[in-house]
Design a protein that fits this description.
Elements lengths: L2 E7 L3 H12 L6 E7 L6 H11 L3 E4 L6 H11 L4 E4 L5 E2 L3 H9 L6 E10 L5 E5 L6 H4 L15 E4 H7 L10 H12 L1 E13 L10 H16 L3 H25 L1
Parallel strand pairs: 1-2, 1-4, 2-3, 6-9
Antiparallel strand pairs: 4-8, 5-9, 6-7, 6-8
Length: 258
C-alpha cells in the first residue's frame, strides 16, 4: 500500500535535510514525500530543489499559500498514496513507524485512522511528556485535554486518503487547532484505532506555533463547543455528567491528600 507523507514548510532550511532523511529511513515501499512550501525566503526552496535532484520519491509544491491548513489540503489533493501521513519539518518518526501504521490500516474494511504514542521533547530532544491518546471515542475527546488526551501531533497518526474527504479536510481559516477539529470530524465519521506503540516525536520548543500560546487553547475550546452543539441534548448532558463525576473524584482525591 502506497503512502504519501506530507511536510509543510516555511523558512525551514535548518530542518529540511533531517526531515527528508528521517522519512527515507522508514524504508516504506512505494513511499512518496510531498514538501509543500508556504513561501520560504531563507533558502528552504533552494535546498529542496537540490534534494529533488537526488531523491526521486520527493515532490515539491511551491507557495505561497493561505496557511498550514491550506498547504495540507493542497498536498493531500495532489497525493498519490492510499495512506496519508503528516510530518512537520522539525518533528520525526521512530524507526518502523510507517510500516507498522500501514500494517494496521491494511486490516481495516473501511477507510480509517490509526494513531500511537507521541514523545514530546524540547529543542535538545529531552523528554517533556508522553502523549498516549488511548481513549478516542468522540464523547471522550469532547471532555477536553484534562479528561482525555487527544493526539497532539500528526507524527503519531496516519489515515486512508479517503478519510480526508469524509472528515472535510482541514479548516483553512484555522491556524492553531485545525488538526484537533480534523480529528473530531474523523471520530464522528470513520473507524479510529489506537496502537500502543511509540511512533512519533514532537519538538515543542520556543518558536513553535503551539509553544506557550493561548490562541490554540482558546480555539480548541471553541471547537469543542461547536461539536457539542451539533449533538443531541441527552448526549451533551451525559458528557457534562461524566466531566462532573471526574471533577468530583479529583476533588475528593486532593482533599484526602491534604
Amino acid at each position: 500500500m502506497r503512502i504519501s507523507i506530507i511536510t509543510p514548510t516555511l523558512n525551514s532550511r535548518n530542518f529540511i535535510d533531517g526531515c527528508v532523511a528521517n522519512v527515507i529511513a522508514q524504508e516504506a515501499e512505494g513511499l512518496e514525500h510531498i514538501i509543500v512550501d508556504g513561501g520560504s525566503t531563507d533558502g528552504t526552496v533552494e535546498r529542496v530543489a537540490a534534494l529533488l535532484e537526488i531523491h526521486p520519491h520527493l515532490r515539491f509544491i511551491p507557495g505561497p499559500d493561505r496557511g498550514q491548513s491550506d498547504a495540507l489540503n493542497k498536498a493531500t489533493a495532489a497525493a498519490t498514496g492510499a495512506v496519508i501521513g503528516v510530518l512537520n519539518v522539525d518533528d520525526f518518526y521512530e524507526p518502523g513507524a510507517v510500516k507498522e501504521a500501514l500494517e494496521a490500516l491494511a486490516t481495516f474494511k473501511k477507510p480509517g485512522f490509526v494513531m500511537a504514542d507521541c514523545k514530546v521533547v524540547d529543542e535538545n530532544n529531552n523528554l517533556r511528556f508522553w502523549n498516549r491518546p488511548a481513549g478516542m471515542r468522540l464523547e471522550t475527546l469532547l471532555l477536553g485535554w484534562r479528561y482525555g488526551e487527544f493526539p497532539c501531533n500528526p507524527a503519531a497518526y496516519f489515515y486512508h486518503r479517503e478519510v480526508h474527504d469524509l472528515a472535510g479536510g482541514y479548516n483553512i481559516s484555522d491556524h492553531y487547532a485545525m488538526d484537533f477539529d480534523f480529528i473530531l470530524n474523523c471520530a464522528r465519521r470513520v473507524e479510529i484505532k489506537y496502537i500502543p506503540r511509540h511512533w512519533g516525536n514532537f519538538r515543542l520548543m520556543p518558536g513553535c506555533k503551539t509553544y506557550d500560546d493561548d490562541s490554540g487553547q482558546k480555539r480548541v475550546a471553541e471547537i469543542i463547543d461547536r461539536h457539542l452543539r451539533d449533538m443531541s441534548y441527552w448526549k451533551r448532558l451525559r458528557i457534562r455528567a461524566v466531566k462532573a463525576r471526574i471533577d468530583f473524584h479529583n476533588y475528593r482525591h486532593r482533599t484526602a491528600a491534604q
